[in-house]
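Appendix B. One record, verbatim.
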Amino acid sequence: MNEELEMIRFQIAAHDMNKSFRDIGYVPVFVADERARIAVIGHAPGLMAQTRRLAWGDLSGERLKYWMGVSEETFRDPSKIALIPMDFYYQGKGKTGDLPPRKGFAAYWHPKLLAQMPRVELYILTGHFAVSHYVDMKQNLTETVRNFDLYLPTYFPIVHPSPINNRWLAKNRWFTDHVVPALQARVSEIIGDSLPH
C-alpha cells in the first residue's frame, strides 16, 4: 500500500463519523493497493470479518472466491484484488441479516481510494447496495444481474454471496449456470490465473 492509501486509512479511522466504532476497538476493514487489477465492492463487513479484521473472512467470502474462480492466495493478493465494501465497519444485526452500510459513506471514501488504484479494470459489484451505487439498475437486482453483460467490461453486477441468498440461488439457477462462468472467465482474463472449473 502506498503512502497516500495509508494516509486515507488513517483518515478513515480518525474521522468523527467513525468514532463510535473506534471507541469499541473496531478498525476499518478493507484492502486497497495501487497495483490491484480487480476491485470487489461489497456490502459491509459482517461481525466475523470485523472481529478477524479480514475482509470477506466469512462464509460469504468462501462462496465469492468460488464464484470468482480464485484461490485463497489469489483472493488475498492485494496486487491483484482490492476489497472495498460500501462501509468499512460492521453495522450490527437487523431483522433479516446485518444492517445496511451507512448512506453517504461510500460516496465520501470510495473516490479517494479508487483514485489511488488506476490499474483496476473490473469492479465486481456484490449485492443491491454496491450495484445501485455504481450502475443504473434495471427494474430490480435480479434483472440487473441477469443482464450483467450490459455493464461489461468495467462492471460486473452479482447478487451478494451471503447464505441469506440461498433460496434466491435455488430459484434462479441461471445465475450458477451462466453468470458464474462468465464472471470466472472475466476474472481469469484480467489476473491470468484461476482454479480449474
